[in-house]
């Protein structure tokens, strides 16, 4: 009984300057009622919040303290006090797909995900009616505003930069609401079917062009190698004969049903000298 009385007296002294005469009268009346019906009213005075929760207490419509109560047990006065529980855990939600016109006049459909949590319970209760719903709406408009300044190439290649830009914009707007935006991610970018076909045709043409360039470079390198080989073989008649025999071996291995009658190199050498 003594602890409860001391608590009520301290709470009344802290808020004496802001309640006014009528407020004082109601608080004293509520305190007397609590003391009179103590065994019964104790169950209405004791409240409990979890480790991840905080309680913002209002006394006659005014916030009693600039710091939220909890976690654990706290006391309230019946009839004059009310409180709002605030969850401090990180909340994630999906941004619905948004049709956005990029800087280069391309219509794309983009969706994302946002992670946020309450950093200041009192501001989240006193400064905005529904912090969760307001943050969701603001995330949708911020997605449109940020992506509207990007062209299609930046949208497809610089998702991390876009996510950081969105996070900075959301954090600046939600800071007065007591909300901390922890992370923003772009999930999917859907392009129109015609644009997808055009990009696929462009990519295929680019790959074919690179393949032709590579094939031409290979032919050129092969021609140079053959030229050098012919110069080396022409300097050594024995080397030419060994190459001739190696070619015959290769042909015999691949088409062994064919009978080949090779001409002696001495007969061919006469025509090679001419």
Automatic annotation (TrEMBL):
Reply yes or no: does the keyword Transmembrane apply.
yes
Any single Pfam family the record assigns to this protein? Band_7
Name the UniProt key words of this record, in alphabetical order.
Answer: Membrane, Transmembrane, Transmembrane helix
- Any idea where the Band domain is? 44-203
Question: What subcellular compartments does it reside in?
Answer: Membrane
Q: Which SUPFAM superfamilies match?
A: Band 7/SPFH domain (SSF117892)
* Superkingdom of this protein's organism: Eukaryota
The record, for InterPro entries, names: Band-7_stomatin-like, Band_7, Band_7/SPFH_dom_sf, Stomatin_HflK_fam
User: What are the coiled-coil residue ranges?
Assistant: none
Q: Which GO terms describe its cellular component?
A: plasma membrane
Principal subcellular localization: membrane
Record field: transmembrane: 24-46
Decide whether keyword ATP-binding is in the record: no
Q: Which PANTHER family match?
A: BAND 7 PROTEIN-RELATED, STOMATIN (EPB72)-LIKE 3A
Its family?
A: Belongs to the band 7/mec-2 family.
The protein, known as: Band 7 domain-containing protein
Organism listed in the record: Esox lucius
């Amino acid at each position: 009984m003594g602890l409860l009385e001391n608590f009520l007296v301290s709470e009344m002294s802290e808020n004496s300057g802001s309640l006014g005469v009528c407020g004082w009268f109601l608080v004293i009346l509520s305190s007397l009622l609590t003391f009179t019906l103590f065994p019964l009213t104790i169950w209405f005075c004791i409240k409990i919040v979890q480790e991840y929760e905080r309680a913002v207490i209002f006394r006659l419509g005014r916030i009693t303290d600039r710091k939220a109560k909890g976690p654990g047990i706290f006391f309230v006065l019946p009839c004059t006090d009310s409180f709002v529980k605030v969850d401090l855990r990180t909340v994630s939600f999906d941004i619905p797909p948004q049709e956005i016109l990029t800087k280069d006049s391309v219509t794309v459909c983009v969706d994302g995900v946002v992670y946020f949590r309450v950093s200041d319970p009192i501001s989240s209760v006193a400064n905005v009616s529904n912090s969760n719903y307001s943050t969701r709406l603001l995330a949708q408009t911020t997605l449109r505003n940020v992506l509207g300044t990007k062209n299609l190439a930046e949208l497809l290649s610089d998702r991390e930069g876009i996510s950081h830009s969105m996070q900075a914009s959301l954090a600046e707007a939600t800071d007065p609401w007591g909300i901390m935006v922890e992370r923003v991610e772009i999930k999917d970018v859907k392009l129109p079917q015609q644009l997808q076909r055009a990009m696929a045709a462009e990519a295929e043409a680019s790959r074919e062009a690179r393949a032709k360039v590579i094939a031409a470079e290979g032919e050129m390198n092969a021609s140079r190698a053959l030229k050098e080989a012919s110069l080396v073989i022409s300097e050594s008649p024995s080397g030419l004969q060994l190459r001739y025999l190696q070619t015959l071996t290769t042909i015999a291995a691949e088409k062994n049903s064919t009978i080949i009658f090779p001409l002696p190199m001495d007969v061919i050498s006469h025509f090679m000298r001419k």
